[in-house]
Amino acid sequence: MRTSAIIAVALAALSIYGCGLQKTVAPASKPLPLRSLRSAAVITLKNNGAEISGRASVIVKSPDFLRIEVYGPLGGIAALFIYDGVSLYIHSDDGAALYNGHNVDTALPLPAQILVLALTGDTLRLKDLAGVDLNTSGMDVTKHEFGLQTGSVRLFDFRDVDGFFVPFSIVIREIKTGRVITIEHSRVEINPDVPPSAFEPPNLIP
What we know:
Elements: H1 3-13, E1 36-47, E2 50-61, E3 65-71, E4 77-83, E5 87-92, E6 95-100, H2 103-106, H3 112-120, H4 123-130, E7 144-147, E8 151-161, E9 164-174, E10 180-190
Antiparallel strand pairs: 1-2, 1-10, 2-3, 3-4, 4-5, 5-6, 7-8, 8-9, 9-10
């Protein structure tokens, strides 16, 4: 199993919802912004009839800091993804790579800023940046799907976690590759104290 494929799944992902709390209707008004989130997730990649799944630990910190650790079969870190709002660092069995500027979005299944918003369930800002919400009827506020030039992102299974409404399920479809990436979150910690060093890449790239 190629961990590079798993990290692609994780990138689509990077986020952050769970905790086995009671399901509820999506919020009538936007909650206060999240400062930080930490979660466990199962990320699945479907491509050309093949399916790969992996466990991941995800951390997000406002405004757009992300860290994903993807675990291998024995529980060790098989791949690492770090985004500090400017640069994207990826390390897996294929080696290490550092992306800057517009190159960041070429390495992600979604533009970086949109990916962060999807992972935090910020549907209002997603609508501003990603375009039309395909839930045109407006009747079901527990499901949102945004059409993009590169594909679409769907958010559903919203739950109340300590007053924050977050989607426990995210599905990203890529037009160019045909890949479908699903993120299902379980345990989540809201507003943990995350040190800046969590978003600093290791000194593996000159």
